[in-house]
Amino acid sequence: MLALALPVLAEESLTLLVGYTDWWLAGHFLAGTEYKAAMGLMSYVLWLIPSTFAVVAIGATALIARFVGAGDREDARRVGHQAILLGAALAILVVLAVLVGGRSLVQVMQLEGRAAELAVRYIWILTPVIPAIMIEQIGVACLRGAGDTVSGFAAKSIVNVVNVVVSTLLVLGPGFVPNLGWEGLAIGTACGHGLGGLLVLGLLLRGRAGLRLELRGMRPDPELIRRLWRIGMPGGVDVLAVVCCHFTYVSIINSLGVAAAAAHGLGIQIEALAYMSCYAFHVAASTMTGQLLGAGDSKRASRSAIEACVVACALLTGAALLFYFAGGWLAGFFTGDIHDPTALATGKLLKIVAFSTPPLALVMVLTGALRGAGDTRWPLVVTFVGLIGLRLPLACLFAWESFQIPGLDITVTGFGLGVAGAWWAMVIDVVLRSILLVARFWQGSWKEMKV
User: Fold this and answer.
1) Using one digit for the tens of pLDDT, what is the confidence trace for 65-75?
2) Domain containing residue 430
3) N- or C-end of the chain: fewer Cβ atoms within 10 A?
4) What DSSP string runs through 162-191?
């Protein structure tokens, strides 16, 4: 488990460093709350775009892990070819969607004025590297299914270093380097993803973990594509539903004003310390359950998921203590002043989220274990129950003074707690989803899934 998780943990830590660097640069060298509000929305956009390829990535990981566990490397290679083909088709659709609807997305998110214009400019700079993001996501997912988490770590390490260096230079503008400010942050991100796609593609062309891309294998295989889609669709819809619900959630917060949007954005970026750490054990649980079920060892598959939960819960309990007792200091580090209004508001939010951090470990790891086993429908149901049935309605109720129920002439009086109320809704949602996923895992029918 640790051999699979630790490279991913290091990889996600570097990715987190990129986000932290961008926030630090924006907080120290780009004056104004508008930059912080735009940065908060960009954190979600940089989550949304990779997530659009989750349908293929989840299906590829599950199928390749099952074939590798059964000792069938040839079929694992065939899955890799079909995954890249399907991803290429999706990448074209995503590019077109962003070109047509990028500005509309920012408007729907209720970000206004200069903050909205900054967000739109960032999106346009990022659009050309969407195909490279696709190769990063799907290529690394294939390698992880084959048990290779080191190659993705190596490639993304280089990517993240390039991202940090380019962004820092273009924001600071030392010597002959132009000072591009906000655009410098976006260009650094685009350079990192562009290089990342090329590196992962190079690894697959040379061959890693028994997977190798060859021109003769790039012909569509309708049967394998159907299996990829059947396994990946519920998981992909799950991921996209999570992202879309989060976009709706952040639009509720953005409606409270630029100050609330800035505090939320910084709080989410700091809270990612827990999320990203837990993602490493999500990947490990997904790979191990898939491979061990492929080898016919359901008992060890179950044990691997439980051990991943234990370690992840221990890590995130430590993160919860950090958020609760040092959240204000962490926020002040990014804004440059612990007494900055954004830092003060963010510190209060981190005290709230500390209560949901350990349950988040169970949500992440058990979702990965179920997806690796091919049980992608149950996490989707849990997502809809928690996010749509609970978080969004409670966020409206807790955050706003009043709101009208869509389609009905009914006005509900809310608690008016502002952004803090929305974060309490998030805590309740995460706790409920953790309970439902533990119940599904304990019930055990995921061990009998056919892929």
Assistant:
1) 989 988 898 99
2) 2-448
3) N
4) HHHHHHHHHHH--TTS---THHHHHHHHHH
